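During the reporting period the student researcher (J.K.) took over the structure-prediction task from the postdoctoral fellow and processed the backlog of single-chain submissions. One of the processed entries is reproduced below for the supervisory committee.
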Amino acid sequence: MLEIHPDICEARTPPTEFYTDSAIFAALKERVLARCWHLIGDLIPDPEPTAATAGSDLLKRASGVFQQNAGVFAGGAATKEKTTHLRPFTLLPGCLDEPLLIVQDEEMRCMSNVCTHRGTILVEEAAPAGTNLRCRYHGRQFGLDGGFKHMPEFEGCRHFPSETDNLSKVPLRNWRGLTFVSLKPAHDLAQLTAAMDARVGFLPIEKFKLDRARSREYVVKAHFALYCDNYLEGFHVPFVHASLAQTLEYGAYTTELFELSNLQLGIARPGEPCFDLPVGHPDHGKRVAGYYFWLFPCTMLNFYPWGLSVNAVRPVTPELTRVQFLSYVWDESKLDKGAGADLHRVEMEDEAVVEAVQRGLKGRFYTRGRYSPTRETGTHHFHRLLSSMLH
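J.K. obtained the following structure tokens:
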């Protein structure tokens, strides 16, 4: 379905059909997107406050993860109230369209949000939970761990209940305050995040605060892989991003490849903001303006001296992608400076060229291209990983 030569000096880029064919996109959904990790970040709604929780500050949002502080005050005395909350969401709407449910008490877990009797959505809105989950259609009940508990009018049903009557559990993992889920993970999240621990582990990432005013969603009229292709090379920077090119040393821009991720290292020009790296750090002595991490297949974590900008890419169709930008601020004094400034403008420039490629692929005279051995190693790496999972 997708053959990419392992030697970049021999390899050709994917054919046009890879980015336009609906059958190939369907294969990508099941063989790649359903088996990889996706950042759920700020997608899950908070339940509305109730009389029991209003003013108690039970729920606090920290770096996109919902954390619970169970201390509430009753009659002036501190007491503990163990409240469980339900947060339904859909993973990759329009693409995977998987209804999922987060159950939050002392810990956070994820499970299917579909009743195992007739397929009804169990929980429609975020809310505090009772002691069970009860389907509104025929009254089937589940425990808050997803296990089947009771079903009326099923006396005499043989071999019931069975394992298939429980709600399926969905793997959920946390990295430094960011939450990821995968329907059928082909690899562990640690394989993606190990390189980030080595390079940005010195940062207090758990303390970064979500800035809603700087967070937004973009709609890109192109295949998600084209968006990733563009992100994974700095080759286009001097041609597409004039303002960004003035802050980065293009000649010092490098890409490092890891098993399931890669890093683009942006070096600041003299006078531009950069990280104050601790002694002993692998990049100590370098003027690092940005650590641009990509996690296979479509999550980008961009670390700047001011904090973290996340690009959570949400495939929809072969010609439509949503990109959620989440900004987590650490040092407000460094905002709007250097490589991490004016991210909206950079995104608009990227979208324009990516959408132009999507239109160009419909032409009759282009089939596939070649890679720059010095500048497109990240893109080649991405295509090789896609190829390995599609076969």
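The committee noted the following: Confidence is low (pLDDT under 50) at residues 49-80.
J.K. will present the remaining backlog at the next meeting.
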